[in-house]
Structure formats: C-alpha cells, structure tokens
Fold:
Amino acid sequence: AQTIHQWPVAEIKAVGSPLSLGCTIKGKSSPNLYWYWQATGGTLQQLFYSITVGQVESVVQLNLSASRPKDDQFILSTEKLLLSHSGFYLCAWSLEGISNERLFFGHGTKLSVL
Amino acid sequence: AQSVTQPDARVTVSEGASLQLRCKYSYSGTPYLFWYVQYPRQGLQLLLKYYSGDPVVQGVNGFEAEFSKSNSSFHLRKASVHWSDSAVYFCVLSAPSGSWQLIFGSGTQLTVMP
Structure:
C-alpha cells in the first residue's frame, strides 16, 4: 500500500528564518507530486507540482521554492519566512495528470510564523 | 476564467437530517469536478468525482452529487447525516486532460449536531 508522510507535523518559526518542509511517498514509483498551501480558514492554493525527479513547476509565487531530489521525496523551502507564510501545507501525489486521477494527500504541516 | 464558488461558508444540520452543500462553477466547457472532505488536522480525501455521463455520481459514505451543465452546478447531497460527517467540504474543478491545476472552492464547514 502507498503511504505519504509529511514532516514536521507542526512548526513555529520567526519571521526571516529559513524553512524546510518534507514529503515522502512510499510504495509508488514515479508519482506526480504537489504542494498545496491553505491559509487559516481558507481554501487551498496549488504551489508546485513535479512530474519527475529534478523537475519542479511553480504555479503560484509566494517566495517559496520546491525541489525533488529523489523520486519519492518533495521538499518545500525558503531562506526567509514572511508572516504571510503561516498556514497549513499539504503534500499530495497522483498517478497521472491531475485531471485524470485523484489526489492522495498527506496529513499536512501546520506552520506558524511569528 | 475558471472558478469555483461555494456560497455557504458554514452549514449546521441535525443528525439524521438530509444535507445539500452547494457548488457553482465557471468554465467554458465541461470540466472535471470533485468533492473532497477534510477532517480536522488532516489532509483531504476524495468523496466523489465527475468526468462525464450520468449526471448523478455516487461517492463514499452515502454521499452523491449531481452535475448540471445548465446551472453550472455540482451540489453534494446526503440523505441522512451522521455526527462523523462534520468536516470541511471542498468542491474542486479541473480542466480536462492536459491541465495540471486544480481550482478549489473556499470550502463549507459542516457541523452535525447530535
């Protein structure tokens, strides 16, 4: 069975500090990977997607970056956090293009920037 | 432009009552439509999806949704709700094949009173 694991579960960080969030998918080779951001009480915005190792496409510019160093790993990061980065970050995977297949979501990381 | 509107931010119903959560979309053709549910502090799970064909689609846990092209709607229904159905429900749109982006509605917080 496929599993998706996000870390950390929660983070409290200072404005201007760096951030790294991780996501690992086990049991599925070459998945499509996605990062979503959910502001408190808000809807989800797609941030990045990746079809293959080393390739990441940006959907929304929020002063964040993403990388896919391994087939099963997706990293979200920034060198300087802003207050507006607070929220809930969700990693997801799918078998094929979003339009054709369901997304499977991780449990998310709650980020509070103070 | 593509968009999804969930006009009801919060819905409260009594256990055993019927439920309808509204979703309106804006898209020039026939989109792919999904309903996802988010339980507290968790990722999202797919309830059901519509690609084409029968406008009434069945999902998990007794949920169903009806697609209406004339009304540009995709309302979610359940005949009898349970307290465990309390969660946030998202209506989601995607353009057919070739699109890598999902458009999320703002979500509806459902509270089921015992």
